[in-house]
From TrEMBL:
Name of the featured protein: Citrate synthase
Organism: Halorutilus salinus
EC number: 2.3.3.16
PANTHER family (alphabetical): CITRATE SYNTHASE, CITRATE SYNTHASE, PEROXISOMAL
Pfam families, per database record: Citrate_synt
Family matches, as InterPro entries: Citrate_synth-like_lrg_a-sub, Citrate_synth-like_sm_a-sub, Citrate_synthase, Citrate_synthase_bac-typ, Citrate_synthase_sf
Amino acid sequence: MDEVKKGLEGVVVDESRVCKVDGEEGKIWYAGYDMDDLARESSYEELLFLLRNDRLPSGDELDGIRDEMAARRALPDGVAELVDREAERTAPMDLLRTSVSALASYDDEADNLDDPTDKCLGVLAKMPTVIARAHRVREGEEPVEPRDDLGHAENFLYTLHGEEPTEEEASAMDSTFILYAEHGMNASTFSACVTASTLANVYSSLTSAVGTLQGRLHGGATETVIDMLEDVGDASNAEPFVEEKVSNKGKIPGFGHRVYETVDPRCAHFRRHIETLNPDSELLAVADAVREEVEARLGDKGIFPNTDLYAGALYRELGVPPAFYTTLFAASRAAGWSAHIAEQIEDNRIMRPRVKFVGETGRGYVPVDER
Ligand SMILES: CC(=O)SCCNC(=O)CCNC(=O)[C@H](O)C(C)(C)COP(=O)(O)OP(=O)(O)OC[C@H]1O[C@@H](n2cnc3c(N)ncnc32)[C@H](O)[C@@H]1OP(=O)(O)O
Ligand SMILES: O=C([O-])CC(=O)C(=O)O
């Protein structure tokens, strides 16, 4: 009864139709569809439709969700002002979290839970706008308003850089949104579900999730990986770097996963896009060299690359500064958060685990002047 499952390892909290992660085989299925196929063939908007409706859209339905997302990209004036005011001094993930929270103030029916997915899509459409705007303000550049004739990923790069991306760049960006979109009951999704289980509004649930993704054991690893690759500097330094980490029992960012016993299947997609955009990427060479050393030393222990190993190197090729990497992970994962929030609300029971009490009882209270 009182067995403690530290880190909730192996605990099954509910049923879900959203995503199957097969950690033994290294496969991901989004609503029954192979993630590998979707990452190559699909678009983020199509995935949003799939997660919402449990089926792929017709051509008209796909146009419909694209138009709907595009129409919801603009920020309320108050949130645009918040971003403009805070972007310089506030870390991007903190600002994204605060902006998601602030969006509740501009929804007259924020607490209405009749169609949580629709409300989440309104937030999800705006997250890239917040990110691009914050980046431009930090750089001392004029914000670029979103365009409704561009897809979700293409529009993000357009608002970030002020010019339309190439087809390869837009396709790589779209892939990153798909790759990071969903991954079962990970920490940030769990956090969203705990908040949703109290019947809090979706702004609260999404804000909880953004906050949870920030940590460097979860989404924040996208940024620590880049710091590590830059510190290593050259592929020839990978061996002594990994040797030193292993002998000091240090954790190497971008490796290890609670679910995978093999390489994370998303790595290959991030990697192939880096190769397409820049076959001479030095960061890619360093990441590959570190990977080879880690697999040789820790593969027996089940330590393999996770999705974050190559993500930063790809974001770099797309011109995204490192401080914004985790915000893009959040903007992508919002798809999964939304789907799980909807499932939670549809068949809800408040989340309320227990802790095993190991403290004392019966301590006699002594008034302060007698201590
Ligand atoms: C999108 C994502 O969130 S993916 C994960 C992103 N996070 C990272 O890349 C950070 C580095 N990785 C880690 O810290 C962990 O692997 C986590 C947080 C992802 C998973 O943690 P857990 O499932 O709790 O594994 P735990 O930390 O207990 O590690 C188990 C063993 O593997 C080792 N290990 C786990 N990850 C690593 C790593 N990255 N480098 C070296 N050793 C590792 C641990 O030292 C531990 O060894 P021990 O049994 O000898 O003490
Ligand atoms: O599933 C997890 O524990 C971590 C995660 O979010 C991911 O790998 O995308």
